[in-house]
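[job 4471] stage=fold_predict status=RUNNING
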Amino acid sequence: MDQLFSRLSALETVLWILAVVVAFVAFLVIAPSFFTNPTPSITSAAQFTATPRATLTPLPSATEVLGAPPPKVSTLAPIPTPPPNAEAFTFVANPKQSGWIASGEKDPHWGDRNIHAGQYKGQTFKSLLYFDLSVLAPGSRILYADVELTGLNRSNLGTSGNWSLKLLPATLLTGWLGHSVSELAQSSTLDQIGRALEPADLAEGRTNQFVFSSNQLSRLEQALDQTGQIAFRLDGPQGPADSLFTWDGGDPDPTIGAHPVMRVIAVPGQFIPITNTPTPQNVLTVAAQVAQATEFAIRYGTPTPFPRAFATYNPLQVVTSQPTPANSATAQAQAAYATAVAMTTGTFTPTPPYLITTTPTPPFLALGQFTPVATPTPTPFVSRLQLLQTPIPTQVGLSGDIAFLSDREGTGTPQVWVMNPSGTILGKLSSDEYYRIAENQALFSPDKLFQVDVGKCDNGVWQIVMLDISKGTLSPLIADCKGHIGAYHPAWSPLGDKIVYVSDRETTDEIYVYDLKTKTSARLTTTLLNQKTWELAQNNHPAWSPDGKQIVFASNRDPFPMWQIWIMDANGGNLRKLSSSPYNDTAPVWIR
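[job 4471] inference complete, writing structure tokens
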């Protein structure tokens, strides 16, 4: 018996030791859960900030939600090859008119880098994408279209839910930025584009593709015919479980982020150019037109605006002034005609801005093709003087604004756009007429007695020369033919004392200003070597502000190699960028 009790005591000791070891291991496994919070800590909607220029808001730093499925392997559908009569177009979402919205908030977050969709901490997040397709004329036949988004963050992705892209109705596109959260978030949609996505379809850096079906292409054509503007809403799960995913909304700087894009293959339609009603030939025609317009207004109301397919324009026309009456009878006849006009239609209508009156002018000298030598041979000057005598009408409302060329429509041909001095884009001009007038005015002195332009030395180097209009003489002004240093893009200061220009004397194109009194030049810009490409950026096409206190110019210094519009004080200080777009904005002129 003593031996039995002895054995039991030893066995009991071993069991106790094993129990202690098991308890210690269990403690090591379970204890961390009491000191960490498994709930992800996403920034609440109230803490998100939207800035005029898209910035990357702080992304959630929490560990990935437990149970979120790993991304599955997938490939994008191939983009079809356009048939011979079609073209491929790529449209980038406007970052300043895209953003996200959250339930319980008053205004959308325009211009944010994040594109949120889903549910988190009791709030529902949706996102909006805005595309401008107005380069496609109404009647364009769309053969293929898709929208492509790149994932940015899945840290708060749950185990279930669906994400979808929906086309918003055209009625919401008027005053787009002024709509409230409730209007944009609760509006009924035309259609869901492509298939809905699941959590396994979402991953950081992965591109999600939403492809239009054949029926949806016809709906897209209808939206294109109406406004040329297209908008989408990204919807995600609405609870009760949290599940939020974030796509990349891109940045105005094209080197930052993966911008949402819309790819379209279409057979482009044609815009129909039309001119306004021609000027009546006589007072009887005017009276008939007035009566016809009155009858139309009584029966049908005011005329309907032209559809988007029609492009109106007023071609520049040259008319001559009325000659002095040859005798008293002619003068009486003209007076009687003026009385008839006043009785039927009121006083004479001022000459439209697209008509320019001309009077006989002496011959002038052109600076188109010449070699500035000791005795240059000028050629007759006509077109630039006509432009100089054609002021930009004040009623157009362009005075003080900056016109520039941009490829933002993706047509391959730069169009004339307008911004104000603060950098806000005001719109696109229907023609380059006013741009050419403003660009030409910058070549003349304020008293219109002298003109600057460029010519070539014997060795082909570009130099700046000056034309004395009254004498018809041409002489080099800023020239260094022997040093092979070029000078070009001159513009005369509104104060008449300086000329701003571009020169490559410091290896790359920089902006200089030439003082006509001291006959010396001062350098205004300094372009540093691009550390990524080891190339020097360039600056060109400077233009003075109407008061002569600032200079606007184009540069591809940031982001290299895209061209953007920059501005600085007349002494080179206070340098800053005016345009921040994923397009090439070049050749600015300041309208006086």
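[job 4471] summary: The CA atoms of residues 6 and 116 lie 72 Å apart.
[job 4471] exit 0
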